[in-house]
Specification:
4 strands, NADH Oxidase, 49% helix, 211 residues, four-stranded antiparallel sheet
Length: 211
């Protein structure tokens, strides 16, 4: 397992050119989506949503918003990671109901947890709450990137796009969400020169410190 994990991590890179003729098998794509669904999040609430952009015309509209990065169009799949901008009491109650149903526990036994989370979110205020939820998308992205590497699926995490323009195009604010990340998925093109570059990373002694 150690070698398999490290081999996968050394194999992956931020793909610059995708093979537009190759598509991820549906079963593999569903596996990757399940890995996102199983991602940890604060309080387990998952205040995020993942959009799978299949419509090619819509992808063409996203391309200039994403600084004309061709991966947005050529990749097998394009994911938009969105975060809930203002989760409140109702979202907490919905989550607690899922907990009670899934674990077959009475709602009353979760009342203390529910009240704690409601109070914690309320104490954040709108700005901090939005920052908190946006960070949850990065946790999900990290799990997706590892899952992709293990399945030999290429992925390119992107912050390089006009978030306001994308939010408007996808009408996300009206749904209570905003976009934080793009992630095209697919298979690297054989002519992508970046695929053969040696990874540049800090040494173990530079990166880690025991105190």
């Amino acid at each position: 397992m150690q070698n398999s994990l490290l081999d996968a991590l050394n194999w992956r890179y931020a793909t610059k050119r995708f093979d537009a003729s190759r598509k991820i098998p549906q079963a593999t794509f569903e596996l990757l989506m399940e890995s996102i669904r199983l991602t940890p999040s604060s309080y387990g609430m998952q205040p995020i949503k993942i959009l799978n952009i299949e419509n090619q015309e819509l992808r063409e509209k996203i391309k200039p918003i994403a600084w004309n990065q061709q991966q947005v169009v050529d990749a097998s799949h394009l994911l938009v990671f969105c975060y809930r901008t203002n989760p409140g009491e109702q979202e907490v109650k919905d989550h607690v109901m899922r907990m009670a149903t899934t674990r077959q526990k009475p709602l009353e036994s979760l009342e203390g947890f529910q009240n704690h989370v409601i109070q914690a979110l309320d104490a954040m205020g709108d700005e901090k709450r939005a920052i908190w939820t946006s960070k949850q998308t990065y946790i999900a992205l990290g799990q997706l990137l590892l899952s992709c590497a293990l399945e030999k699926i290429d992925a390119t995490p992107m912050e390089g796009f006009d978030a306001n323009a994308l939010n408007e195009l996808l009408q996300l604010p009206a749904k209570g969400y905003k976009a934080s990340l793009l992630c095209p998925l697919g298979f690297r093109h054989l002519d992508d020169p970046y695929a053969s570059l040696t990874k540049v990373r800090k040494s173990t002694s530079e990166l880690f410190e025991t105190i």
